[in-house]
Amino acid sequence: MAKTNLMFYLPHDKLSEKIWENEDKMLPEVREALMKIADEFIDYLGIDLDVLDITMTGSLANYNYTPFSDIDLHIMIDTSSVNKDIDLVEEFFNAKKKFWNDRHDITIRDSEVELYPQDINLESVTTGVYSVQEDKWLLKPKRFKDEFDKMSVDKKSSVLKKEIQIAINNSRKDMDTEPINKMLKKLKKFRQSGLEKSGELADENITYKIIRDTGLLQKLFDEKYNIEDKKLSI
């Protein structure tokens, strides 16, 4: 596997010019396109929804974007207004979201648009939130003062890449998804601990992004589903 260019993950001094007109406003044509995409997604959900806002978050709403960054477009709703069974509503939205994102390949200036229904009451750890609907910042991002430890990230990502391949090999050998499931849980906890400790530029978060952007995270899921399918086949 080719060595990752860590320079991609260094923070920028300004927001992405392909999305933003200036530090305060989104490009009008980008905003219009995102609103159309959101409207299509809301129609696709197929239920009566009171949409409270349409927001954009993630690294392209911040200074830590990379060539691999997606546009995270969130449909903000009060989940409890859909049904009192919150778990059922979340399962429904997760299933619909996955089917939409798997089926569609919509891009804005080469950045893939990922759609998410999100509960308005859910606390977010993101540092940049832009209301596409209202065309204004709800939470304006701040420029980063620090950089991540490149040597630490390089070492951590190399170790994780090896561990991921071992997990995949063990799951294949025994036709058991448990090694992969453990690896997925480890990656999630690994990233979360870094975000809680040091924020977006935490070594753990950058390492996770490298694993994701090089396709290894998706490979874990693909192998997991492939094994599950084989076990159910005769």
Care to give the gist of this entry?
Helix 4 packs antiparallel against helix 5 (178-198), helix 4 (150-174) crosses helix 6 and helix 4 packs parallel to helix 7. Helix content is 49%, strand content 13%. By secondary structure, it is of the alpha+beta class.
SSE layout and pairing:
Blueprint: H1 28-45, E1 53-57, E2 71-77, H2 79-82, H3 86-103, E3 107-108, E4 111-119, E5 129-131, E6 136-139, H4 150-174, H5 178-198, H6 203-213, H7 216-232
Parallel strand pairs: 2-4
Antiparallel strand pairs: 1-2, 1-5, 3-4, 5-6
Helix pairs in contact: 4-5, 4-6, 4-7, 5-6, 5-7
Keywords for this entry:
234 residues, six-stranded mixed beta sheet, 6 strands, 49% helix, 13% strand
Written description of the protein model:
This protein is of the alpha+beta class and 234 residues long. Helix content is 49%, strand content 13%. The chain contains 7 helices and 6 strands; from the N terminus they run αββααββββαααα. It has a 6-stranded mixed β-sheet with strand order 3-4-2-1-5-6. Strand 3 (107-108) and strand 4 (111-119) form a beta hairpin. The protein is globular.
The coarse overall form would be globular
| Poorly predicted runs of 5 or more residues | none
Total number of strands: 6
Reported for the largest beta sheet, the result is: 6 strands, mixed
How far apart the termini lie comes to 35 Å
Find the structural class using helix and strand composition: alpha+beta
Number of helices: 7
Relative strand content: 5-15%
